[in-house]
């Protein structure tokens, strides 16, 4: 995308089988931004495309402080309105979150036929398109209603002026009355959705606790959207999870089992992808899904090695890890899509991140090394026990084979003699049969 004179014009990508909206993209370059304005708007363009919108022009402005009335300067706001008119755009998308009043003021400037939305509204729209499970749809609806609530005033402003035409009898505030009714309705909806989500969260927590208490080592795949998490899960487990080259192709967490070379099983969970400027409402709404990361024994931070914004994406994910308070959980950086890199570029990653792994699901590269690293991480959490289990406790021998790593096994007159690596949650199960050497 070119940004000469802070404006770029682009040809439409409308296809004959669908009528796509036409958008003007708006970005503000401020001091201390972690991403370049060009990179941020290029990502906004991809988000718009994912939502079915053609970006026909883009404009930027450098500002030290945000205009509280229109976000951008008044002159730039008029320029945006003209740009929308010239390009027959029907939506203006800001790369940052707008306040309700800023959105209302901008809509007055650009005209009633042009929608003004921000990055948060765009992401919510994409999430609404891609949510498939009941929990995922409820999480999106909750975030949408929380976003909508403070913006209701502008939506009902026409009632006060148009319903009675002004003059006598028009000062009873029917627009405000309708506004309050609508606010109560949205608050009621939020409460109802939270209640449903709480019930589903209890079910998910029960399922998760069952996995935790089973002693199964839990691995969470986390990372920037479109880094290839679902493809990696498929390569590791033959899961056949939906995998598209699109932002937020999958929203619902998926858990699959992986059998390690020594015969032990672990679980891998694919989680919702992250993005820079991820709305806090979404982080909160997807809390139960993100709990899969909080409850993991190991996090695989999957990174698109071929992305030009790789460093910024890494930082965005690490910032969300801080929000989730998962600093105590070991993290393995997995640079995916390395088939798109030169040998020199691969070497550069290895030098900079010596403990990272390089993978390519397309070229089937590095998958065996990743499985080995998972096995090593699982083994590092285990306690080595030597036990003698009576034959009548065959259930414990079966548990050792299913959930532990067997170092050695033999049988004598008293029972089954095992040297076994035991996960922390299962140590108490074998404690009564532990052999103590003098």
Give a summary of the structure in a few sentences.
By secondary structure, the protein is an alpha/beta fold.
Inertia-based shape: elongated
End-to-end CA span: 74 Å
Q: Order of strands side by side in the largest beta sheet? A: 7-8-6-9-10-11
Q: In angstroms, what is the radius of gyration?
A: 27 Å
Poorly predicted runs: 1-5, 12-17, 154-173
Which range does the strand content fall in? 15-25%
* Coarse structural class: alpha/beta
Q: Give, in order, the helices and strands.
A: EEHEHEHEHHHHHEHEEHHEHEHEHEHEEH
Number of helices: 16
What is the percent of helical residues? 40-55%
Q: Kindly state the number of beta strands.
A: 14
Features:
about 450 residues, alpha/beta, five-stranded mixed beta sheet, about 20% strand, disordered N terminus
Q: Could you walk me through the main structural features you see in this protein, from its secondary elements to its overall organization?
A:
With 438 residues, the protein is α/β, with parallel strands linked by helices. The chain is built from 16 helices and 14 strands. The strands form three sheets. It has a six-stranded mixed beta sheet, with helices on both faces. Strands 1-3-2-4-5 form a five-stranded mixed beta sheet, sandwiched between helices. It has a three-stranded antiparallel beta sheet with strand order 12-14-13, covered by helices on one side. Helix 1 packs parallel to helix 4 and helix 4 runs antiparallel to helix 5 (134-148).
């Amino acid at each position: 995308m070119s940004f000469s004179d802070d404006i770029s014009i682009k040809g439409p990508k409308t296809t004959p089988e669908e009528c796509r909206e036409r958008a003007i993209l708006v970005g503000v370059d401020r001091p201390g931004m972690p991403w370049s304005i060009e990179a941020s708007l290029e990502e906004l363009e991809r988000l718009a495309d994912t939502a079915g919108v053609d970006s026909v022009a883009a404009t930027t402005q450098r500002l030290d402080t945000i205009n509280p009335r229109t976000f951008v300067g008044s002159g730039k706001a008029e320029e945006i309105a003209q740009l929308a008119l010239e390009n027959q755009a029907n939506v203006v998308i800001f790369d940052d979150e707008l306040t309700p009043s800023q959105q209302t003021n901008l809509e007055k400037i650009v005209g009633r036929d042009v929608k003004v939305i921000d990055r948060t509204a765009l992401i919510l729209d994409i999430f609404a398109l891609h949510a498939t499970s009941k929990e995922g749809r409820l999480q999106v609806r909750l975030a949408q209603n929380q976003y909508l609530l403070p913006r209701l005033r502008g939506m009902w402003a026409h009632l006060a002026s148009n319903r009675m035409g002004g003059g006598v009898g028009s000062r009873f505030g029917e627009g405000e009355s309708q506004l309050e009714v609508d606010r109560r309705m949205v608050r009621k909806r939020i409460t109802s959705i939270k209640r449903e989500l709480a019930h589903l969260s209890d079910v998910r927590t029960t399922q998760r606790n069952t996995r935790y208490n089973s002693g199964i080592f839990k691995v969470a795949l986390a990372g920037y959207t479109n880094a290839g998490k679902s493809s990696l899960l498929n390569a590791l487990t033959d899961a056949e999870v939906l995998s598209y080259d699109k932002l937020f192709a999958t929203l619902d967490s998926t858990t699959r089992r992986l059998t390690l070379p020594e015969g032990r099983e672990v679980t891998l969970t694919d989680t919702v992808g992250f993005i820079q400027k991820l709305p806090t409402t979404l982080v909160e709404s997807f809390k139960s899904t993100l709990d899969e990361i909080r409850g993991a024994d190991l996090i695989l931070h999957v990174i698109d090695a071929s992305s030009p914004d790789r460093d910024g994406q890494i930082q965005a994910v690490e910032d969300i890890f801080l929000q989730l308070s998962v600093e105590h959980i070991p993290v393995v950086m997995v640079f995916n899509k390395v088939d798109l890199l030169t040998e020199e570029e691969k070497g550069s990653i290895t030098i900079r991140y010596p403990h990272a792994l390089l993978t390519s699901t397309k070229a089937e590269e590095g998958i065996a090394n990743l499985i080995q690293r998972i096995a090593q991480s699982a083994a590092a959490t285990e306690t080595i026990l030597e036990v003698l289990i009576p034959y009548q406790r065959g259930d414990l021998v079966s548990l050792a084979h299913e959930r532990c790593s067997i170092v050695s096994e033999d049988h004598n007159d008293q029972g089954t003699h095992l040297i076994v690596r035991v996960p922390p949650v299962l140590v108490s199960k074998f404690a009564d049969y532990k052999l103590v050497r003098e």
